[in-house]
Design a protein that fits this description.
Chain lengths: 173, 358
């Protein structure tokens, strides 16, 4: 029996909002994107609800909406400058350092080009294979591997650079 | 750090980002709200429009030759063998309800001019002012729901990119909530509005002395007695029945300060993808390369995976209409259908709005 739209919301809305938040690195924009996608999906639920995997379909709508987010939204699509998130975290060893690393990575992810960002999120948040990511993003598997490789290289470099800077600050103290 | 360690760290960072996801309240409220942003003209008016409009469908597509400046909104010359005049199809008109003249700031930083207005199906109405040279932007929006509806605990889970502060400033007796991104590029302030539009919002980008000036803008807003729905209504673009308006109707000046109107719609029967209708002064700048001329329509396809799109552009009443179909997860609909839709669209001159002509 086809899933009703309300049943779908109960089952998937949280997951969609979490997914969109990792894509956008901005809960406000994530909310906008999910809302816009679901308004469209609601209108067409008689068709979407009858699909084998309506959740996957709507999730792909979210991905596509993120990739095609329009010019108008640029006022909300605020990039996070390198180091800003790091500055928020208290410097220190051990556990605090772990928090710093994650903050550096999140800031770096927020600056990745959208397709790279989407590929990274699909791989490391959604645990998708190259083939599945290629299908989601509408590109070749080689392109997916290239997106992820470039993104990971860049994130590693930024993390190492930040750790090096933090080390220098520690020594200075 | 090993690759495995790095990937674990990356996964952990993404989970942390996901933990900052907003709650369901606003999305559920938007989905539950009846959408009646689109005002329909009286049936008699629709009938008059339909019967006076010439409806054009391109019968023979390949190797078409231009048929002059004939547009779908005027009687079509039948001399060209490529075009056939058919009985008018039902036309429905998304009316812009474009009325946020309700609520005028009495003060804005010197030199700012109004450049954009938006109305969205979620009920929000937005006006935008920009500095002619430079990145400064100020917006004023009225919304039917937003983060003010969230419980405090939920708002505190917002990411560090949006820090709260200044909650004791008041506008019209209501406490103001500020959020600023870490670069200071964008600052929002929200406060309680009226019953129909419970949230008012002012945002600013690259505005000197941001907080002081935003408060000054907000406190200077003079609300009119009329509700937005009662203010000026006009229809500039008529859509055929297979296009359903789903998103925003926007009117703004483009980068060349030319008036531009867009409508977001979905195309019935082909899934959830988007159709954008642009009504602009200039012909698309890149109209020559990549475009195929079919009758008096120009058509092109851009293949870019899920971002593929197909477009039809054609002159109407001294302006250009651009119909763009973003394919997303489905396939192209093809030039015959898209041009068929284009041929049944109507356009009327944009209203004479002072802020559009500046």
């Amino acid at each position: 029996m086809a899933l009703t739209f309300d049943e779908f919301l109960s089952d998937r809305l949280d997951a969609l909002l979490r997914y969109a938040t990792t894509l956008t690195c901005d809960p406000h924009q994530a909310e906008d994107i999910v809302q816009e996608v679901l308004l469209r999906a609601q209108q067409r639920w008689s068709r979407i609800g009858g699909l084998d995997l309506p959740g996957a379909y709507v999730k792909r709508m979210v991905t596509n909406e993120f990739l095609s987010w329009r010019r108008r939204r640029s006022s909300r699509d605020v990039s996070v400058a390198h180091g800003d998130l790091v500055e928020l975290a208290a410097p220190g060893p051990d556990e605090t350092e772990w928090v710093d690393d994650r903050a550096v990575l999140l800031a770096g992810i927020a600056r990745l080009p959208r397709k790279q960002r989407a590929a990274v999120v699909l791989r490391y948040y959604d645990d998708r294979s190259d083939a599945e990511i290629a299908d989601e993003l509408g590109c070749a598997e080689g392109t997916v591997r290239s997106h992820i490789s470039r993104a990971v290289d860049r994130l590693r470099l930024e993390l190492e650079a930040e750790r090096s800077r933090a080390g220098c600050r520690g020594e200075a103290r | 750090m090993s690759t495995d360690e790095f990937e674990d760290l990356l996964r952990d960072a993404l989970r942390q980002a996901a933990d900052r996801a907003p709650g369901q309240a606003r999305v559920r409220a938007a989905l539950a709200r009846p959408r009646k942003r689109w005002r329909w003209p009286p049936i008699a008016l629709m009938a008059a429009i339909a019967t006076t409009a010439a409806v054009v469908v391109v019968e023979c597509l390949p190797n078409g030759t231009p048929s002059g400046t004939v547009g779908p909104a005027v009687p079509v010359a039948t001399s060209t063998p490529l075009l056939t005049v058919l009985p008018p199809a039902p036309v429905r008109t998304p009316v812009t309800n474009f009325a946020p003249t309700w609520g005028d700031p009495g003060w804005l930083p010197s030199g700012m001019v109004e450049t954009e207005r938006y109305a969205a199906v979620d009920g929000s109405l937005t006006r935008v002012w920009s500095m002619p040279k430079g990145p400064t932007r100020v917006t004023f929006a009225v919304r039917q729901s937003d983060y003010l509806d969230r419980p405090d605990a939920e708002r505190k889970s917002d990411p560090p990119a949006f820090q709260e502060g200044g909650q004791y400033d008041l506008v019209g007796g209501s406490r103001v909530w500020f959020a600023t991104d870490l670069n200071g590029q964008l600052t929002r302030m929200r406060w309680r509005g009226a019953s129909n539009y419970p949230v008012y919002e002012v945002t600013a980008q690259f505005l000197p002395d941001t907080r002081t000036n935003m408060l000054r803008v907000a406190r200077s807003i003079q609300f009119r007695d009329t509700r937005p729905d009662d203010v000026e209504v006009f229809a500039a673009v008529g859509l055929p029945t297979e296009l359903s308006p789903t998103g925003e109707v926007s009117i703004f000046r483009d980068t060349h300060a030319k008036p531009y109107l867009t409508v977001t719609a979905s195309l019935d029967g082909v899934g959830s993808e988007r159709v954008f209708v642009g009504y602009q002064v200039d012909q698309p700048a890149d109209l020559v390369p990549g475009w195929q001329q079919i009758g008096y329509f120009h058509y092109r396809v851009t293949n870019d995976g899920p971002n593929s799109r197909e477009e039809v552009a054609w002159p109407v009443s001294g302006r250009w209409l651009v119909l763009q179909h973003a394919t997303f997860e489905t396939t192209l609909v093809g030039s015959p259908r898209l041009i068929g839709i284009a041929g049944r669209m109507l356009a009327r001159p944009l209203p004479d709005l002072p802020w559009l002509s500046g």
